[in-house]
Structures are given as C-alpha cells and as structure tokens.
Design goal:
The chain has 339 residues and is mainly alpha-helical. It has 14 helices and 4 strands. The longest helix is centred in the last third of the chain and has 29 residues.
C-alpha cells in the first residue's frame, strides 16, 4: 500500500476495486462483453504507454508483439494441452524476447526512424506467421483453442471471462504503477526527457531502452494471449497494423506517461465504434435507411473520427484524457476558490 500513502487515495482505490467487483451483479451479458473488451485493451495500452509514454520510444509494432503472445498461447494450449494460466505468462515471455530483439536498433535511432524499424517488425512477424506452417497451422493461419478452464470450471460465459481478465488487469495496473515509481521508472523518464543527459548522470541508456521494450512486449504478449483465450481462436487478422495504430491512439488520447490514462484511452477507443453504431443507426432510421446501406459509411466514419481525434488531442490537450481528469479533480479540490 506504499503506492497510496494518503487515506483518501487508499479509500478511492478501494472503492474502485469494489465497483469492479460489483459490475457483474448489475450488468447483462452484452455489457459484460464490452467491459471485457475494455479490460483486454487496457492491458495492451498500459504496456505501450510504458514504452512510448514513459521512455519516449515510438512503436508501430505493438500489434505484432500481441500476435506473438497470441500464437504462443494457442500453440501451447491447442497442441500441448497446457492450461491458460501457463499460456498467459508464456505468451508474455516469448513476446518480451521478440520485442527485445526488435528493440536493439533503439540504441542508434529514435523518433521517426525507430517507428519505421518497429513497423518492419510488424511486417516481418506477420509474414513469418503466415508462411511458416508450424506456427500458423497452415489453413488461413488459424489455430482453434479449447475453452480455458480453472479448477474444473470452464470459462465459457462473459461473466466467467470477466473474472479471468480482471485479475490480470489489476496485476498489470499495479505492477505498472510500481514500476514507474521505482528506480527503473525514473531511468525510463530520464531517457524520455533527455537521453544524453541521462547517460551523463550514469543511466545505462541501452540497457533501459531494451528493458522498456521487454516490459512493453510482455504486456502486449499477455494481452494477445488473453485475446486468444477470450475468442478461442488465434488469427493474425486480429493483430494487423491497424491494431498497432489503435493502441497508439489509446495512449495519445488517454495520456502519454500515465498508467490511468492508458485505461481512459482504452475505454474511449473501445466505446467509440459502439457509440457510433448507435448514433448512425438512429440517424439512418430517421431517414428510412437500412443498416446495410450505411455499413460502409460507418466503417469510413470510424477511421475519420480516429484520425480527427488524434489531431484534436495533439493540438488542444497533448496530455489527453488524464489531464482533463486531473483538471476536474483540481477544480473540486479548490472549490469554491479559483486558486
């Protein structure tokens, strides 16, 4: 509890945990599916924020590292009969090893050049999975995974899947909060702010850059493995380049350099297409259009809004939703005084 020394902070986080535990009691299956998707996205977004937000290393290969974790878990469960609680850390470990390898160029390059190097990782990993039959299984690069089980209970409903995802999310969140407040986290931030100055004061820049890639890829691998167990299928189409861009949008909109901001961003990006569907369907029904008539328009509208929001947040509020949340808290803390 050293993370939250103030009684008010401890009480607020205890309330948050209590709310998370009561969600299944007041939600139907459809709502639970949405909550599960947010939990899965938040784990991956926290990992990318450690690399991009805290260490300043731009990555366009996050989806590829999720793909590595997904196929590792699928192979272990479908071919060797391993339980999901073995596949999860194994997926993270293999993704961390692959991510560390592709993070080696970060010693010599950064910014746009590093982004292109990680983009190459996306294409290389995707090609390997599609063209090596031992990995992909051969037919459409698809591996079907048996229903995960724990202590004899099959995790086959949205409610049970929630209690598979929730502990992993909470562990990932608390571990990230601990990491960024530790000596390692301070080294990450020093490298992000000025890598030359960090090296002068004794920070091993190469070691910590690789460590950031390893930690971020581990999170991505665990998120990918969870996706596999959630959908009961591993397929590369779930982790293509647009997935990497979506995760980058999550950390930018949520707030670079903030663990809680990653959760905000994951929630926002996951809910955005769902809200769009309801809004466009409502408008279309007013004018007598069918859903199929507007489906193509809806897909393009989602991409336009994605791009527009990223530009908007970068221009107006670069620190994202987390900064807005901070402003709201500050307003009530000082209310009714302005300062």
């Amino acid at each position: 509890m050293a993370l939250y020394p103030l009684p008010l902070a401890m009480a607020s986080y205890a309330l948050g945990v209590a709310l998370l535990l009561t969600i299944p009691l007041v939600s139907d299956s459809h709502t639970m599916a949405i909550v599960n998707l947010i939990g899965l996205a938040a784990i991956g977004a926290i990992g990318l924020n450690i690399l991009t937000g805290y260490t300043g290393q731009v990555s366009l290969g996050h989806g590829a590292f999720m793909m590595v974790g997904a196929y590792t878990a699928a192979i272990l469960s479908a071919r060797y009969g391993m339980p999901f609680w073995v596949g999860l850390p194994a997926g993270g470990a293999v993704a961390a090893a692959v991510g560390t390898f592709f993070g080696i160029p970060s010693l010599r390059i950064k910014g746009l050049y590093l982004a292109i190097a990680t983009l190459a990782a996306q294409f290389i990993i995707e090609w390997c999975i599609n063209h090596i039959p031992w990995i992909s299984g051969g037919v459409q690069s698809t591996i079907y995974v048996p229903t995960p089980a724990f202590l004899g209970w099959e995790i086959n409903t949205e409610y049970r899947r929630y209690f598979m995802i929730l502990p992993v999310f909470m562990l990932a969140y608390v571990a990230a909060q601990n990491l960024v407040r530790s000596r390692v986290g301070r080294a990450f931030i020093a490298i992000r702010d000025r890598d030359v100055a960090a090296e002068i004061i004794g920070v091993d820049v190469f070691k910590y850059k690789l460590l950031a890639f390893a930690v971020s890829s581990f999170y991505a691998g665990v998120a990918g493995a969870l996706w596999t167990y959630y959908l009961k299928i591993a397929n590369y189409e779930h982790f293509i380049l647009s997935t990497s861009i979506s995760y980058l949008a999550m950390v930018i909109i949520g707030g670079l350099g903030s663990v809680l901001g990653s959760v905000f961003g994951a929630t926002f990006i996951t809910l955005l297409p769902i809200v769009l569907v309801y809004v466009v369907e409502g408008i279309a029904s007013l004018f007598g259009f069918t859903y199929f008539a507007i489906a193509d328009f809806l897909a393009n509208l989602r991409l336009i809004i994605f791009g527009g929001l990223i530009i908007l947040f970068l221009a107006i509020e670069p620190e994202g939703l987390y900064r807005m949340w901070g402003n709201i808290k500050r307003y009530f803390r000082f209310w009714p005084f302005s300062y």
